[in-house]
Amino acid sequence: MEVNKTEEVRDRAVLVGLNCPKLSRRDNADEETMEELSALVETAGGAAVGVVLQNLAAPNPRTLIGEGKVREIKELVKNEEATMVIFDNDLSPSQMRTLTEELGVQVLDRSGLILDIFAQRAKTKEGRLQVELAQYQYLLPRLVGMWTHLERQAGTSGKGPIGSKGPGETQLETDRRHIHRKIDKLKEELEEVRRVRGTQRQRRMKNEIPVVAIVGYTNAGKSTLLNALTDAGIPANNRLFDTLDTTSRLLRVSDTMEVVISDTVGFIRKLPHQLIDAFKATLEELEYADLLLHVIDISSPDWQEQAEIVEDLIHELGAEKTPCLRLYNKSDLFQGDIMPYGERCISISAKTGKGLDELLRAIDKTLDKGTRSYTLHIPYDKGNLLDRLYQEAKVTQVEYAETIDVTALCDRRTAGQLKFYIEGWVEDREDWET
User: What is the pLDDT of residues 206-217, one digit of tens each?
Assistant: First the structure.
């Protein structure tokens, strides 16, 4: 694999993956996941200088891969002047320690790499809090043996250096307590973020503004879609995890409906559980959303698997009962024979604008609760009905003439209860009556 040596990169990495029948589908590595790992390295500012994919009957408990493969990778690291080795599979703390010692360079797994990318990308205070929490949760079980000084007892044996006689606590235990304290503090701060979000959510619900959340695999085109619908001005680059911090905008769907539409962090294979937990303050928006827009990159050969990964995560986050529209994005680049279709499926191109009008109609139809604009003529002695309209509807105009003339957006239930004051009221009819 050729790399331009004049181009400045953070690290030169050899990528390693294990394919093994004893590992679950999620934990296995294959050519597709290795390609994605290479893209992740590039996103992190590094360069892949070699790829090793091993097939093995069972994982080696000490090094995950075979001992012979470890020697082969060490030679590759030397020849390619690599500065680190990154595994597509998750490594246990002891495997990471052993491999680091044997290979002579830093060893990282996919989860650690994704955490590094998130740390680079997070811009808002909330995003940084979430990433920091995930990093500490990832680090905690990996403390043992990461630095040899951590295992040195602080002085009960009498054999340590002068001045090291202490309460008998290892540096490791001190660090553990420090990290536990840090994790507790971050959780408290994120709980405050959730509380503020909950207050904002209640305000939206009171105002009856529906919430639409855009979800999808990383790089599926979510930010491009939000920009196309709302002129949000989010940088939409062709790279993984370009959006971490949630962006929300008001979108007028039709004459009678406005929604709050939110972009969310992209999902990916083998997304570290620490990140899912840490980002729940952001991702819980999915659970409370009135509608999900699942953006699928239909130009990707792996689009079906990517869509399945997103749906699994939606289920894991407790949002599987929320109505969902599947948006087949980049349809202008589709290479297949038959585009997927169905009642809740729409082919779009966020870049060219194709299908966006159909999408707005579908959002309106899915969220429509019979809200319409009505003109009401309220007698002055029934002025309390105006207060009710302010509470239950969206009042757009009030004029005081012979009566209080009000224009308001009402759902069918509220309108039915005030029908005697509505101009041109028509009773609903059953289908057989029309």
Answer: 556 788 999 999
